UniProtKB/TrEMBL annotation:
Name the record gives this protein: Large ribosomal subunit protein mL49
Compositionally biased region (Pro residues): 8-20
GO biological process, one term: translation
Transmembrane segments: none
Region spans: Disordered: 1-37
Length: 133
């Protein structure tokens, strides 16, 4: 007996609108908002930027593209997510317009990295930078 295909739920509506207009450079780096004129809202999740840059420079958002299976499968990997990962996944799905119940498109990998099918790196970086991370 084969199972009937699951009905796709519509993408969730994001709860946290962008609060900052980032300028993402061609290498993927974006300057976070300055702490003096910006109050970071309380999010249930946090994404930490990379560290150990020369001259105490501000790091990158930990969002990477990955190519596997002989170049035929492209994915986006998001690292350093802490806090309420389920809330992060809901916001991510809503921002990217992905179904709320499709676990084949967005999944948590071993070690806590989040993987999204397709190269959505720029979209994810712009979303995270817009939230102030």
């Amino acid at each position: 007996p084969s199972q009937a295909p699951r009905e796709q739920l519509p993408p969730p509506t994001p709860k946290y609108p962008p609060i900052f207009e980032p300028r993402v450079l061609s290498n993927g780096w974006s300057k976070p908002p300055s702490q003096e004129d910006f109050d970071m809202p309380e999010y249930p999740f946090k994404v930490e930027r990379t560290r150990n840059k020369p001259n105490d420079a501000i790091g990158f958002l930990p969002v990477y593209s990955k190519v596997r299976i002989g170049g035929t499968k492209k994915t986006t990997v998001i690292k350093k997510v802490s806090g309420d990962v389920d809330a992060f996944l809901t916001e991510l799905r809503g921002t990217l317009g992905l179904s709320a119940n499709d676990n084949d498109v967005v999944r948590i990998r071993t070690g806590g990295a989040i993987e999204v099918n397709g190269n959505r790196t720029r979209e994810v970086k712009e979303w995270l930078a817009g939230l102030g991370f």
